[in-house]
Amino acid sequence: MNASLQSVPTITATEQDALDRLAQAAHGRPFEWLGPHEHSDHIMVRIMAPGAEGVDLVDHTGKRLACAEYASEGIFRACLPKHTPYQLKILWPGDIEQITEDAYRFDPWPGEMDIYLFGEGRHRELTHVFGAVETEIDGVAGVRFTLWAPNAHRVSLVGEFNQWDGRRHPMMKHESCGMWAIFVPHLRPGARYRFELLDANYQVRTKVDPLARESGATHEVVSIVASNEPFRWHDNAWMARRAKRSMRTSPLSIYELHPLSWQRGEDGRFVDWDELSSRLIPWVADLGFTHIELMPITEHPFVGSWGYQPIGLFSPMSRMGSPESLSRFIDACHASGIGVIVDWVPAHFPADEYGLVQFDGTALFEHADPREGFHPDWNTLIYNVGRHEVRGFLIASALEWLERFHIDGLRVDAVASMLYRDYSREDDQWVPNRYGGRENLEVIDFLRELNDTVAERCSGVMMIAEESTAWPGVTAPTATGGLGFTFKWNMGWMHDTLSYMERDPFFRRHHHHELTFGLQYAFSENFVLPLSHDEVVHGKGSLLNKLPGDESLKLAGLRAYLAFMWAHPGKKLLFMGAELGQLKEWNHDLELEWNRLDEPGPKGLLRTLADLNRIYVSDPALHVRDADPGGFVWLVGDDTENSVLAFLRKAEPGKAPLLVVCNFAPVERPAYRIGVPIASLWFEVFNSDSELYNGSNIGNGGWVQARAEPSHGQPASLQLTLPPMSTLYLRQGDWPS
Predict the structure, then answer these.
(1) Does the reported pTM lie above 0.85?
(2) pLDDT of 96-127, one tens digit each?
(3) Which of 174, 425, 544, 599 has the most CB atoms lying inside 10 A of its own CB?
(4) Is 466 labeled as catalytic in the residue annotation?
């Protein structure tokens, strides 16, 4: 029989009901009706094309096989002989013809093992399989879309390619895993899309793709189909060195920045990654930092959240350009010997309607009980990491940044808020664990699995916890009951020492313990000493303006404090702007105070930091034994009256130690005796009061001879001139030959 003459069966009542529901975007099983369906002697083809003026079924040459009849509100029907391949030729208003494949003739599902691993929370490469993935099915190129929404009654793919019409591409549900899928033939990277859900409560919701690898401009709130084309990296040597390096015994000096406000373009616009690369990398390299740390760069709708309320955990923020431009930036950092750390936020997510909140009309990603699922401090939702799919989602996100973008470390935000069920809650506003305690057992399991997975897959990567309590074993191996992080921020050290530095020098003698107490626990974890963005916002003032006195005294105090920090056990982190002696606290809507570079005081501060980083990186005594109490020796820890302290930093046996002396009073201390381990020459290798740094240039003429006169428990001693408000570094050695 000629295909065009194939008779079309009369619509039955059952079919009419299905067609009506499809036309109303209310049918949860569209594949049962749309596309080709075999009968005893023919194929029935139903096409959803609202707004079309006509539909023909054609062969690969464009020859008509059948003219589809209009059936019901945008749905067309046609019959073909069995085993007849076909395409669709759709006539749209304006005499626009579209020849395409029928999306409903393709099986859209990835492999059963992928689906199984997703349900177990053990699929580590989610975006390779799920979300929007360029692929080929039956020899036809296109994009497969998948979405986890088990409680939705209907899910449709909407985008520019279908006029954002939820009737055009309703998706197929996989009942065993609650996932929905569709393959759209001939769709290409760059297509903009969202998902339209008829949720558990029969309400229509529009959501961005939780697994989107690229996002549109923030005000549009759309996902974009990302290309599968791999980025051509040039950092093989960097990655090989990283894999062999032990960061716990290596120098780690981190420059933290908010990339949207470090420096702006003309008219205050955001710079893109390529512009930032050309400006930032030389700046950081000249200052000698080993790494930068980017505040969250995942897609987030509100700039004022600084990225800490993301809606796209797999997608770089669109404000600064494409994912490829971010990769170029990281590649350029590595080429300049600079590592890249990114803040990553698994603790909570915002309640933006396009995001994860009540995703399918139920608490899918969050806890249903607000005592577990709502964060009172930030008005955000808390991930339910006890659910396999959610735990796997978060771990896959971490791996996406580390593996796809060659990120060298993740700083995990707000870990303390995750670990405690009663964090920031009243007594009756939290739910105890199964043993009646406050510890979040599911989070503990999640963090251990996260860190073990990263260690297994990503050689040399750092996992850094922002954890503000005394939780034991944050950086201990998971095999011994720890959480498995590489480092932990030392929030106690930061609070105590800043409290000390903010005081009038006259009263510091009463608070000397704030400088020394940190050594009581300095070796209990592998610490990073953070002077972060949190200390220069919300009325706290800039780092410089925390200090008392006129600007000259403030600058002297900041130079001395930073030198103390750079010599103290623990890795280093400094937030942008401190190096300029920024006067105002950080404002995310403004760039840094670059005009400060015209003044001698900030210029001296810049040189101070560059020299501190140079000494820190080159001298093993300052970094090799950061977590070893044998690498630190107190010499003077109790001179409260003079606000002086002194200590030794030691590398491996046989290597010369570094003597560090701090005078946090604005007066000179002449002939100050300090015990040292050997009677020899001690060379002044750093003096924060040097004229090089715009100081008063008081010091010791470059060297001091120690005598065999015991002091401070040491067999020898030396007499030093301590400049006012200063820190000195001295290294034992002989005259150069």
Answers:
(1) yes
(2) 999 999 999 999 999 999 999 999 999 999 99
(3) 544
(4) yes
